[in-house]
From TrEMBL:
Organism of derivation: Sporormia fimetaria CBS 119925
Pfam families noted in UniProt: Aldo_ket_red
Family assignment from sequence similarity: Belongs to the aldo/keto reductase family.
PANTHER family: ALDO/KETO REDUCTASE
Active-site residue numbers: Y50 (proton donor)
Name recorded for this polypeptide: Aldo/keto reductase
Residues the record lists as binding substrate: H112
Any one GO molecular function term: oxidoreductase activity
Domain of life: Eukaryota
């Protein structure tokens, strides 16, 4: 079992269905990554802020050692955290993350959030998180512009530390601004994307500029209920929504598969995760059936412009999407 490949502007091919490492526990991460590779996953979406890159790399190393896969067959993604936006910090932290993964290059390295926070050295606290203090009470912004950070990302790509660069959580305005100064176009844009947050105009803008979109939190509130987010608990779960369940029944698929197919059939990449072998296989097998145009419209009509992954929703006083 394998995923279809999407062509990136840098010439690379990225699996359309990958495995997201957000909230994967450290103690089981290596085994989960190893098993995902064994199941057929080739794209792994990590980040400094997830705090499990060392363990993810251990899973990759074991799979390579056992002959399950070669490094060049994998597509490893990582992200630049907000505390390392100063141009002089981009290359050092990228190299640290490569060392954590135990690889020589990333296939894709992206800016995690479009906000600069004060630098915190890895020796002081790693991952540094959103707050400048250990008590998680004080936000202190950095001084680096997004342009200066992106230029440092371009330099890292030219040095071969990453094959492609991209951005995450950018709005249309920020993407338009980036395109005025980028000498290397971002290969991908990663955004929260589910039927409650469709963002059709942003998707159009990315497509017009040959930027592949990766959608995260494909299941909407389901991804946030276990994080004790109050607003997520007040929203009907997409897994139980009449529109989704009726379409799933018609196709003899799970509601998760329908949600992932709604995204992939419209050209997006997705990065679900699961520790269940059955769901691992089901999530990977979401491109072998098609929804009708009417079914896609029905699902898209559920749009509420409802964003879960905003700092304010986590009690972090940064009005990033306000």
């Amino acid at each position: 079992m394998s995923s279809p490949l999407l062509q990136l502007s840098n010439g690379s091919k990225m699996p359309q269905v990958g495995f997201g490492l957000w909230k994967v526990p450290n103690e089981s991460c290596a085994d989960i990554v190893y098993n995902a590779i064994k199941t057929g996953y080739r794209l792994f979406d990590g980040a400094c802020d997830y705090g499990n890159e060392v363990e993810a790399g251990q899973g990759v190393a074991r799979a390579i050692k056992d002959g399950l896969v070669k490094r060049e067959e994998l597509f490893i993604v990582s992200k630049l955290w907000n505390s390392f936006h100063d141009p002089e910090q981009v290359e050092p932290i990228l190299k640290k993350q490569l060392a954590d993964w135990g690889v020589d290059y990333f296939d894709l390295y992206i800016i995690h959030f479009p906000v600069s926070l004060k630098y915190i050295s890895p020796e002081t606290r790693y991952p540094p998180g959103w707050f400048v203090d250990d008590a998680s009470t004080k936000i202190e912004y950095g001084k680096s512009s997004l342009e200066s950070t992106y230029k440092a990302m371009e330099a890292a790509q030219k040095k071969g530390l990453t094959k492609a660069i991209g951005v995450s959580n950018y709005t249309g305005a920020l993407l338009l601004d980036l395109l005025t100064y980028a000498t290397i176009k971002p290969a991908t844009l990663q955004i929260e994307h589910h039927p409650y947050l469709v963002q059709p105009k942003l998707l159009e803008l990315a497509k017009e500029n040959d930027i592949v979109v990766t959608g995260y939190s494909s299941f909407g509130p389901q991804s946030f209920v276990d994080g004790d987010m109050a607003m997520a608990k007040d929203i009907p779960l997409l897994f139980d929504h009449d529109v989704i369940t009726s379409i799933a029944k018609k196709h003899n698929k799970t509601t998760a598969q329908v949600l992932l197919r709604w995204a992939t059939q419209r050209g997006l990449a997705v990065i679900p995760k699961s520790s269940s072998q059955q769901r691992l296989e089901q999530n990977l097998a979401v491109t072998n059936f098609d929804l009708s145009d009417d079914e896609i419209k029905q699902i898209s009509s559920l749009d509420k412009n409802l964003r879960f992954n905003a700092p304010l929703n986590w009690g972090i006083p940064i009005p990033l999407f306000s």
